[in-house]
Design goal:
The structure holds two protein chains of two kinds. Chain A is mainly alpha-helical. Chain A has seven helices and no strands. Chain A folds into two domains: 76 residues, Orthogonal Bundle (Helix Hairpins), CATH 1.10.287; 210 residues, Cytochrome c oxidase, subunit III, four-helix bundle (Four Helix Bundle (Hemerythrin (Met), subunit A)). The longest helix of chain A is centred in the middle third of the chain and has 41 residues. In chain B, β1 and β2 form a beta hairpin. Chain B has one domain: Cytochrome C Oxidase, Chain A (Up-down Bundle). The relative contact order of chain B is 0.12. Classes of the chains: A mainly alpha, B mainly alpha. The interface between A and B is large, with 76 and 85 residues. The complex binds copper (II) ion (CU). Copper (II) ion binds next to α10 of chain B.
Chain lengths: 287, 542
């Protein structure tokens, strides 16, 4: 048997059989079943979730380890590289559509649903409801809450993410010009700024939830706020982890001026998350 | 044109893993394609049994076998399993098997991820079926999972939500694989505007999947949040809106219709030219028609919601936009007919199913245009007319095209011929009983019988009996297909490299059965429209 590490000239790299996808399927099964049990407060839920998460983690480490190993052995050349680029691009497109759906929910509620609920037709149901934004209560009065303020912490967070985009580009310049120290420092800065963003976001959530009583059940404002910023936060978390992996790879001497798509993919993802935040800042916090 | 030598040089070599590991750890597009197809067929049987339960209950008015709650679970799971477990995986499986062979790719672009896409299906379907035995039973809100019903149901709904998440991940990865394979792995000389229509259809379908599956995931996640985390996305009292769910769902749901129809168009566009022994008529107009459907399908979703109290302007917009889709679809139908016109046609089983597809899909398309008229839809919404309409599109459309494809490519996949007489019997049997089942439903709907109800008024009895008898006979007929396949796999006649005289796309230029690894490195091609291969030689690097 010829070894998969030595591809023929002109041939496309097709990996050998791998156990990681099957493990990943098991992981998602455990996560799905565990989550369904856990949200219903039933036995085994938490345990299955943990098991699923561990399996998924093992799969990610093993799978990406394989990919990185193949890459270091030179299995990936121009055509394979292009496949990764297209693949990453379409993945980001699917994420764009996910956020588009969530922004659509915000627009629909603000522009159509709430004005309707506040209109004369619904006065007999919700006589005291007025659809100003940010809402002070839901149509059926809950406890009142305070809305977020754009020009405090959120503005600072915007600054952090914008800066992180800049430091990432700075790191990219370093990579392109062979200045490895600049590359490392830039990545570390970006990662740290991402972490700082998440910390501040967590602080903001905590404060809003407890002190301002802005909860998920606090009407259209609260739920769209947590839906959009929460989804974005998860993406920042994922992006930060990707950056961390890239940083570790840089420290091991991976990547050169020509071949560094993992870095670029991380950068694409990070800039995508940045742009989503700018939209969030304008549409959720400011308007 | 000896590609056998070419194929043996693949870099993972001709080594073929054995036993369970071959399937569980597969990175071979043919193995993964086969798993997809078998899995889809099993789910087709499961979904079919649920359908027969429904038809058994509806054989007579009154409650026979199932309480209304269970009946609703049956209709819901029938829909979900057929859509996500049978039809979509079957098309993905076919794309897996045939795309690399048709465009000269060594495999799918991401072979390992391909395996994950498949192996996520059994867990997701297990979660879905598991929901029958949990407290409260399976989801009973219809396959559309409308709020507020879906917010109120028991934990079966949670299992359904997570199953849909997993199915979404699976189909998005499968779609990314298809798109990248088509864009990046075509053999030199296989230009985009010469690609087989099946490749074009798969490309646009995959793009639709990537665009709308995340939207569905978002919708069910909000349902989950409403159920357990205290939000009120779909509850007006909490500042949300139940109609919002319908908007988000149908923004996914309508393109989903084309996700299940476009690959069928692609298959028929390969089969008809082969058996008419003529090139596909109007190839480029086919490409543009498919692409324009890919765009238009995002602008019509609210035609499912004409009775939700939309403003008249919105009704008019969605009505006309929907009618507009009949134009590219009509272009396709006329192109197929023109392809057959004056061809030297022969009527082997794949061709029969393809022609059956054209005939019955057109009927389904026309009842769709009827439903697109907002004023008419107000009367027909939620009636059996709608059930008749989408079963003409999905059973006689998607399913018939799948049968056509399986018969067409069976020799290339297995190296053996299916039994032609059984195939013909399967077709005529299916054609007859399909119409016996679903044609009366038009009249039931026009007369006002609502869908998703286990009981009905006495005057609907006769047509329901006819439909139920048809359904059981149709279901029985699918066993002919299974027997044919199982028998032919072992005892079928050995198939030649090119069993169909008129077939001249790339997959027929390699040995039969297709070798385990093919086209690595890719061949140098000279092609014509619709994937027709004019000449092929080794790229010289092997
Ligand atoms: Cu539609």
């Amino acid at each position: 048997m010829e070894h998969p590490e030595q591809p023929l000239a002109g041939a496309y790299f097709v990996p050998a059989p791998s156990c990681w996808p099957a493990l990943g399927a098991l992981a998602l099964f455990c996560l799905g079943l565990g989550a369904a049990l856990a949200v219903n407060a039933m036995a085994w839920g938490g345990g299955l979730l943990l098991l699923g998460a561990l399996c998924l983690l093992r799969m990610l480490v093993g799978w990406f380890g394989d990919v990185i190993g193949e890459n270091q052995q030179g299995c990936y050349r121009q055509q394979e590289d292009l496949s990764f680029r297209w693949g990453m691009g379409w993945f980001i497109f699917s994420e764009v559509m996910l956020f588009a759906a969530c922004f659509g929910v915000l627009f629909w509620l603000r522009l159509v649903a709430l004005p309707t609920l506040g209109s004369l037709d619904y006065k007999w149901l919700y006589p005291d409801f007025s659809p100003s934004w940010p809402l002070q209560t839901a149509p059926q009065p809950t406890q009142s809450y305070r809305a977020m303020e754009a020009w405090g912490l959120p503005a600072f967070n915007t600054l952090i993410l914008l800066t992180s985009g800049a430091t990432l580009t700075w790191a990219h310049w370093g990579l392109l010009q062979g200045r490895r120290r600049q590359l490392q420092a830039g990545l570390l800065c970006t990662f740290s700024l991402g972490g700082l963003f998440l910390l501040l976001q967590a602080f903001e959530y905590h404060h809003a939830w407890t002190a301002w009583r802005l909860t998920l059940s606090a009407g259209a404002y609260g739920m769209t706020f947590y839906l959009l910023t929460g989804l974005h936060g998860l993406h920042v978390l994922l992006g930060s982890l990707i950056l961390l992996v890239v940083w570790r790879r840089v420290r091991r001497g991976h990547f050169d001026r020509q071949h560094h798509f993992a870095f670029e993919a991380a950068a694409w993802y990070w800039h995508f998350v940045d742009v989503v935040w700018l939209l969030l800042f304008v549409l959720v916090y400011c308007l | 044109m000896d590609l056998a030598s070419n194929t043996a040089h693949g870099m993972v070599s001709a080594h073929k893993p054995q036993g369970l590991a071959r399937w569980l750890f597969a990175t071979n597009h043919k193995d993964i394609g086969s798993m997809y197809l078998w899995f889809a067929f099993c789910m087709f049987l499961v979904g079919g049994v649920l359908a027969l339960c429904i038809r058994a209950e509806l054989f007579s008015p009154g409650l026979q076998f199932f309480q209304p709650e269970l009946f609703n679970q049956l209709t819901t799971l029938h829909g979900l399993i057929m859509v996500f477990g049978a039809i979509m995986p079957a098309f993905t499986g076919l794309a897996n098997w045939m795309l690399p062979l048709m465009i000269g790719a060594p495999d799918m672009a991401f072979a390992r991820m391909n395996n994950w896409s498949f192996w996520l299906l059994p867990p997701a379907m297990t979660l879905l079926l598991l929901s029958f035995i949990v407290p409260g039973g399976a989801a009973a809100a219809g396959w559309t999972l409308y709020a507020p019903l879906s917010v109120q149901l028991g934990m079966g709904m949670d299992l359904t939500i997570f199953a849909i998440h997993i199915l979404g991940i699976s189909s998005i990865m499968g779609a990314i694989n298809i798109v990248v394979t088509i864009i990046n792995l075509r053999a030199p000389g296989m230009r985009m505007m010469n690609m087989p229509m099946f490749a074009w259809a798969s490309l646009i379908t995959a793009y639709l999947i990537i665009a709308v599956m995340p939207v569905l995931a978002g919708a069910v996640t909000m349902v989950l949040a409403d159920r357990h985390f205290g939000s009120h996305f779909f509850n007006a009292a909490g500042g949300g809106d139940p109609v919002l769910y319908q908007h988000v769902f149908w923004f996914f749901g309508h393109p989903e219709v084309y996700i299940m129809a476009l690959p069928a168009f692609g298959i028929v566009s390969q089969v008809i030219p082969t058996f008419a022994r003529k090139p596909l008529f109007g190839y480029s107009s086919m490409v543009y028609a498919t692409s324009s459907i890919g765009v238009l399908s995002f602008m019509v979703w609210a035609h499912h919601m004409f009775v939700t109290g939309m403003p008249a302007t919105a009704q008019l917009f969605f009505m006309y936009a929907t009618m507009l889709i009949a134009v590219p679809t009509g272009v396709k139908v006329f192109n197929w007919i023109a392809t057959m016109w004056q061809g030297s046609m022969s009527f082997e089983t794949p061709m029969l199913f393809a022609i059956g597809f054209i005939l019955l899909f057109t009927i389904g398309g026309l009842s769709g245009v009827t439903l697109s008229v907002a004023a008419v839809d107000v009367q027909l919404h939620g009636s059996y007319y709608v059930v008749a309409h989408f079963h003409y599109v999905l059973v006689a459309g998607a399913l018939f095209s799948l049968f056509s494809a399986v018969y067409y490519w069976f020799p290339k996949m297995t190296g053996r011929m299916y039994v032609e007489r059984l195939g013909q019997l399967h077709f005529w049997w299916s054609l007859l009983w399909f119409n016996v089942t679903f044609f009366p439903m038009h009249f039931l709907g026009l007369a006002g019988m609502p869908r998703r109800i286990p009981d009905y008024a006495l005057q609907f009895t006769d047509f329901n009996r006819i439909a139920s008898i048809g359904a059981f006979m149709f279901g029985l007929g699918q066993l002919i297909f299974l027997v044919n396949i199982l028998y032919s796999l072992r005892h079928g006649k050995t198939a030649p490299q090119q069993p169909w005289e008129g077939a001249n796309t790339l997959e027929w230029q390699i040995p039969t059965p297709a070798p385990y690894h093919s086209f690595n490195p890719p061949p140098q091609l000279e092609t014509a429209e619709n994937g027709v291969v004019l000449s092929m030689r080794d790229s010289g690097q092997a």
